[in-house]
Each structure stands twice: as C-alpha cells, then as structure tokens.
Amino acid sequence: MTAPITITPLTGIPEVHEGDDLADVLEVGLDHAGVRLADGDVVVVSSKIASKALGLVTHDPDKDRVVHGETEYVVAERSTGDRVTRIVRAKAGPIMAAAGVDGSNTGARGGWLLLPHDPDGICEQIHDALVARHGVRRRGQAPLHAR
Questions:
Q1: Could you give the CA distance from residue 119 to residue 117 in angstroms, rounded to a whole number?
Q2: CA–CA distance, 80 with 60 (Å, rounded to integer)
Q3: Which CA distances in Å does 99 have to 4, 57, 71, 96, 117?
C-alpha cells in the first residue's frame, strides 16, 4: 500500500519581480500554508514565476517575431483567417504552442514572458536552496547535516 498524495497550493506568494530569489518567494508560500518540507516532498514551480524572477521579458510588440526567436523548429501550423497558431519545439525544450511566449499575468511590466532556456538548471538551484533551508535530503543521500 502506498501513502496518499496530498497537494497543498502555496497561496500568499507576492508578485514576483526581476531579481527575486525564488527560494525566498517559495518560502513565503510555504510559511503562509503552514508547510515544512520533509523528505520525499515535491515542490512544483511554474515557469512563469521563474521567468519573472529571471527578467525573461521582452517588450517587442511583434509576438510572431518573439515566438520565432524562441523556436527551435515548427512541428505544426494552423491558420484561422489572418491568424496562425504554431506548435513548436521551444528552445527551452518542450513542444508547445507559441514556444511558451506568454503575455498574461505580467504585472505592471507588460511585455512577453519567455521560458527559461535551462529549466532543469533553475529547478536544481531552487531544489538545492530548499534542501539547505529545510534539512531535507535527496533520495539516497546522507542527511545534509552529516556531510
């Protein structure tokens, strides 16, 4: 029998700004939710807050040009009138619409948010910071304080 999975949304996270430390941002959400991380916990972070913290925003008004710049190759296209939707392999790796270029929830800065080109690296940095703060360890590693 396996243990149940509990999903806890991290509310109370403030608007993320360029230069914010993502571990600090997540800590606010964890504290607000009353969560202390334990071995085996999984933290899911949206690319949007990572992009905001990293300042991955462009103010180029031509979204098609921005999408083209973030595209490795086109997988499929669909035309509807004067609009073309492209499914592409983004430089960040995933296959998705518009290479992940997103203009929603950008706050007062506006513009287009871009996906981090090294999402695994960003996750590793966040992981290492949370491991250090909470004393949890990766599977198969000695506890942090024993190193």
A1: 6
A2: 23
A3: 35, 14, 6, 6, 11
C-alpha span between 54 and 114 (Å, rounded): 10
Over 92-147, what HEC string results? CCCEEEHHHCECCCCHHHCCEECCCCCHHHHHHHHHHHHHHHHCCCCCCCCCHHHC
Residue that the structure tokens 């997540």 belong to: 26
User: Is there a contact between 100 and 47 (Cβ–Cβ < 8 Å)?
Assistant: yes
SS3 67: helix
Per DSSP, the three-state class of 71 is strand
| Tens of pLDDT, residues 20-63 | 999 999 999 999 999 989 888 889 999 989 999 999 999 999 99
Q: Whole-model pTM above 0.70?
A: yes
